[in-house]
Queue: 3 jobs
Job 1
Amino acid sequence: MARPAVVLAVWALAALCALAALTAAAGWWLPAVALGALAALGTWDLLQTRHTILRAYPIIGHTRYLMEMIRPEFRQYFGESSTGGTPFDRETRDMVYERAKGIKGEEPFGTERDVTVPGYEFLRHSLRARFAEDPAPRIRVGGPDCAQPYEIALLNVSAMSFGALSGNAVEALNGGAARGGFAHDTGEGGISPYHLRPGGDLIWELGSGYFGCRDADGNFDPAQFAEKAALPAVKMISVKLSQGAKPGLGGVLPGVKVSAEIAATRGVQQGRTVISPPSHPAFSTPLELIDFLVQLRRLSGGKPVGFKLCVGARTEFLSICKAMLATGVTPDFVIVDGSEGGTGAAPQEFEDHVGMPLTEGLMLVHNSLVGTGLRERIRVGASGKVASGVDIVSRICQGADFTLSARAMMFAVGCIQALKCHTNHCPTGVTTQDPARARALHVPDKTQRVFQFQRATVASAAQIVASMGLDGFADLGPEMLNRRIETHGTRTYAEIYEWLTPGQLLDHPPQSWRADWMRACADEFC
């Protein structure tokens, strides 16, 4: 391997200088000692497990941390660029790193944010504040047709595929999920050995390529699906209709990253770029989608089945709701992916301008289900830039039951957002299939960091709810989340947005929804 060879070369130079000092001139002792110190540092870098950059880049990797110590602004050049969707701010990233490392996050001198800027949001607190009694509450997922309901955590690992991530990264994420009792979404790349080895709970995601359960032509294979869905680790099945980073496009895995192991996991050819269709071959209408979900539930033995989407047109989701009403069949859950999310490479135009942001998409899905009288049967998940306890509480105020996080979980396993995801040259071993680079990611250490981040973040959310004087997350509502809409005024989400009442679309749809409701049709995605 190249990196150990460099350290060995430095040791060799140090030995040569020492030999010269003994046989020629004493002046050679100075470079001998200096090179010996560097070689010792490089050896320690290769053997230590806490710093991925140093394992990947012995000796020279210290310059990154030195520059951050001298000038924190250097972080923008060393790992603070976005790789998909809109970036997290520095304060949020630092919080994730600290929680993952088990470092307390208190800071002096109050907030660094400008609270007078329109768009700033805050939660109300109460003089009846208390300590949180349950730091890790769970939500039951499973409607009336579900035979094996699942108790899901408030914060889970969002969809990231093996192939997009290295095996070490997947194993660390799943290990953290196993240790913390939360769920790990496989992404559309199928179920790999790294998903199964640690024993964490899985949400098996089926994209339009049906990886892991496809026939030779790329179509859905019921027999393969039933075999894998029966695995004890698989707790939920999620059909990916679209994703936040690139809604309307299928996933792309460059051929350079399609190793023999990934090809076997996905059921594709090694070394060939894999492009998923932009929509599902198995169905083309809302009614056919419902039929497909029924088939998956039956084949899985009654496990919770649902779908994930980045919301586009309101009429399309209302069309799905009408298909549910027409058949009397509902999914067990819907995961809303925000357009601002995303962890991998995607076309810039799609990242910036296609798809509905999570806030609007989440409230649309929640209100649609409430307005059609279906909300009590369906759990709603929120995925997209969820990194803190406040994020969890805010999303529940907007209509979610649970949340999922991708990018923050990547930070927990060592990602520095170096913009190398699609090149196979990730410097921290997170998004590469290069064995030498992936080795830098030490699985046991990063497993602990994923566990610590999730546990601390959910505990923070639970304490925020208790500080609001509430008995639990079920008591949250849009009236508790405030947003500054102008320099001198704030309003609650209950005041800013329209919220439907149960069954309102069926009885007397409001004017603002009437045209879309009338246009929606169960026979097609209108």
Note: The chain has a mean pLDDT of 88.
Job 2
Amino acid sequence: MNKEHILLSISMLISGRDEMEKSLNSLLYFKNAFPTEIILVDTGCNEKQRALAEQYADKIINFTWCNDFGAARNAGLKKAQGEWFMYLDDDEWFENPQEIISFFTTGEYRKYNSASYIVRNYMDPYGNNYVDSYPSRMVKLNSTIHFVGKIHEYLDPFLEPRKEFNNFVHHYGYVYKNEQERIKHAWRNIQPLLEIRKEYPGDPRWIMQLDQEYFCICNYENVIAASIEGLKEWEKYRKKLTYMPIHIGAIYAYLLLAFEGLGRYQEEEEWLKRASSEPLNELDTMEICIAFYNMMGARVYGCLDNDDLCIEYYKKYKSNYNKLKSDRTAMESKTAGAVTDVFSNIYFAETFMMCLPAFMKRKEWKIIQENILIVDWKQIESFSDDIKNKKVLETMCTTEYHGLYTELAEKMLGDGNYFHTLYPTIQALQKEYELEGKKDEIHNLCHIVATLPSKHFYIITSKILWKNAQKESGIEECYEELFLKYADNILEIEDNIWDIAEERKIEIELFFMQMDYRTWRRALESMEHWGSSEDWDKWNSRIREWKSSEDIRYDLFDIKYMGSNLARITKKTESLPELENQLWMYADMVYEFYQPYYREDVLQDNSIGLPDELQLALELRELRDYRKSGQERNTLETMKKCLGVYPKLDKTMLVYAEMLRDEIKKQSVEVNEAKKELLQMASTLKEMAKKQITLGNVEAAKQILLQTQQYVPEDEEIRNILKDLDTSSHS
């Protein structure tokens, strides 16, 4: 291709990533629209990947990897022959970049020296959450343009005027399979950054980049150490450096975030004051860095419960937000690192939540109302935690109720799924209030939750409590909703809800009978994991009160209840017969429950696929038969089959096995002792018989021997003596 005809050289480092083909394919938008050359720098493709790359490339450069991204980029830049130069990675791809195409096809490119497009960095594999960045990726070529840096390399110089494109590339490079992969990637970058730090002492760019990597893996201690050391070094060398002031702002940003992450709010406050008083802040380029300090001020004073300063800083931050969020030029030229995200959905939502208690205490309803509409509530779950949630809820419970509390609670609830995360915090707060006897706070908490749409069983129970306290009607419908929609959680519902039903004389059995049997089984099986003996006993009493007729649901509860009683036996008891009676009763109950649903031959064979509890019941019934018939060997063999069949009763069956072995062993010892005594007695009687023979009392001797033979029929000596006596008498 002739140099004069090339408008754009596109350079890409390729290493065979999964997205490489998609990335290369997207370059055809440019290739098909105007004279474009594609330069690929091969840093480690295999044979198959290389063959794919050759289908797209005008030039392929073999580059032996040396842990230097800048060197690899410069290798591609050196071969560029276009009037303009663009670079990207092989895990990024364009989607219909019509603005950039028009820029070249209309000749507009002649008016500019540089340009930037958006890199959309996704935070999850589904593309739901992302952060846009505006890297300097396009320049008009001249002999001075080159890449700087082994890692996080950049083009220098990057001359004005600059064109800003809204076209973007998709980038999933920050989505990791697991935490180990994230950490590995960060440390891959940290090592060369440590080397660059030594090469460029005090240069804020590399201090900031090191902070960014440590922050990415939540290594806040290293962020703090690197930032403080870096700022000291910058002070020492600043007169000798050419640097961008916004990089200093980014260093402060990471430092403040790290202190926040560690909960060291007093130190964060001190560094916030230092950052805010930095003389560089007088420069226009520091405008968005100051916005970041305002955001962090709102957050830290929210954590320190300094409501006035929290609100003061938040108002400044919100003013910055309104002015600058949509200012693409400012966001591109006046930001770096974490500062770039100052107005992102997640930072804005998080900051609002951290300041919310202060707004409520100071009755700043206007601020709350305005922000409810613009906060991205989908972000709440991604950053919220028990501490933040609890603080907001506590404030709602300890201040005068306001209609906005319901709206806020609904927003926190989201689509309903998040309430499962929020519920433990609410429940813990309720228990805390109960222990402290704070009835008003409990009342307020109940009121707030009761106003929410019914998306969790706890919300329904709160409605019951609230309606009961207010003497409202419609409680029966709440109980019916519990059984129809949240039957899986019925057994988790606290006693006071059932007490209200009893006081109001609500016929719970009507709702219970509407519950799907399979759901009831699931609820009981779940309770087997968490229910205490006290829980089971309470529910047994409750079920007895409800019951007015026979039903399979009651039968199933009886089995599970008896099983729970057996499961409590985890060490030897004094009475084996008592334990066996419980086991036989349990086995018969289970057998009778399932018998109508299985053929007799299936039950006889104890076929694989039967419910675990039924398999155990069948083994126990067989074991009982062997016990009754005294077949010790078969008893022990069947006992082995009982172990591991039904995990819920494994500990109990181990106890029974140990007691059974002890009993059989004891019986064996007693039999042996009896045999020994019998042999001694037989020996004595034989001597008596022999003496009678010597005395001539043959008939007396014969009678003694015949009686003795009944006890020791296998004794040959007695048989021989009797034989001799018979022979003598006949002769």
Note: The mean pLDDT is 91.
Job 3
Amino acid sequence: AGVLMQQVLQNPLAAPETLGVNAGAHLALTIGLLAAPAVHAAHPELLAIAGAFAAWGLIAAVGWRWRADPTTLILCGFVVSFALGSISSLLMLLNQQYLASMFIWGAGSLVEDGWSGVEQLALRVATGAIATMALARPLLILGFGDQQAKSLGLTTLLKPLLVAIAVLLSASVAAAVGIIGFVGLAAPHLARVLGAEKLGERLVAAPLAGAALVLMVDQLTQLLPPDQAADLPTGAVTALIGAPMLIFLLRRVPRLMLKTDGGLVASLGTGGARRPALVLAGLAIALALALALAFLVGRAPDGFGFYSEAFPWRLPRVVAACGAGLGLGVAGCLVQRLFANPMASPEILGIGGGVAMGLIAVLLLFADAGAELQLVGATVGALVVTGAILLLGLDSGFTPERLLLTGIAITALLDASSLLFLALGDPRSGQVLAWLSGSTYWVELDFAVLVLGAGIAGLLLAALAGRWLEILPLGAGMATNLGVPLHAARLTVLVLAAVTTAAAALIVGPMSFVGLLAPHLAGLIELRRARPQLFGAAMIGSALVVFADWMGRVVFAPTELPAGVLSVLIGSVAVMGVAMGRRKTS
């Protein structure tokens, strides 16, 4: 499935998560467990597969209505995946006592009570493998690009057919054993690192690498005492073992040729808004309105109204939300231009995972860890991961392809550790889950001001490097010919992205959706050059998080919903609305 998606979408970051497979299956099972537990108990695999295909159907309908190029499908896939995932997170936050089993499913488990699930999975995998081999030649041609495929006479139905095969394979695995997400993303890269460069070789080597990785993990966990082995979900442990293996292999391969442009250069174009200052002025007005709403409008028992006396209590949260959104918007622009990939988000650096692990370490080591101690642990986690990224990228000159795969491996390793902590049912997992969902309820004013200052400083320094950011997506050769100091430019952009991401993650958690889509929203309103896109993404990110935080604490009062979950829903609607508006005018 990973090879299929990466080839069809022409992007090395494509995985089952890209097209909503896991998010759709997760939401369908969550709703089934809450609304129809008898159906969930009798046919969980049908619910998972139906949810996965429903998510893919929505992505396909929207993507092909606009235009079926890979970048559009990727953007639609992320919007739908994050939206469905946020609904699942919201349901799990409100019904934790009923949905504890979903943590185990989300971490992947090979525990079986018979052969029926294995037989069904084997049949679907065999069917998908035969269909893929039969379509190997069209699949090869699709990797050259849509224009080349059309000129060679490929029909438009082949792309959705190949993606449907990948969705079937991924959904079948999710239905049988839960989410084992790292394998779909990493197995094709493991195959490539081990020498399988041609598509035909990867179609054979990637499944073998994935099978060997999961089998090895399963055998290692069975060496543990039975009571411990039963508590370890295979999906999370696979990432724990597979990620270091990928990093080790990357450092042993002299040169890894990996296409990373992902259509970004084409999507940036050479034009943009004729008067970007007017567009930026409009965004500044929108941000000011969001801030005024967050500061002044509240809710009391008698309804909504202006409650200026609550200003001192609102100030820390609003400043924190503004700073976090600004930093994530800037970081999103930086990493997408550094990696020349529209699917890159600040989370690809793994810093959010480092913050989570620092928080978990403090909770495990100190029984009475307060907010200050938790903040210290989260900060140390962010610094350790940033240092690791810089150290591992040093010997390769911070080349995007190495940084990309190193970031994938570190992110998978840390996310798996967090997921393992949640799946083991520790009573302190509620604090980690609240942080992962993105909430500003605990922040103090001095720290909020510090985060806002870090975001503004990152924005101004990134603007000074605007020329580098224009040229870096064009490739190393072009950048060198145009006089860009390649190593220094990459290191500078990487450090700026890491610092702004770490500052935001300390307050609102990963919230990678904001960093991913803020640059895309800026591009959709014609802010495509580096500096206008930076300032546009910063204001869009700030307005989005501020508005989401206000909705979470006011609209649903007295119940409070985290800003991270609501920002996904609001951002998804915004992306769809802007894109549909552009489609009508064009």
Note: The chain has three domains: 1-111+137-179, 181-256, 317-585.
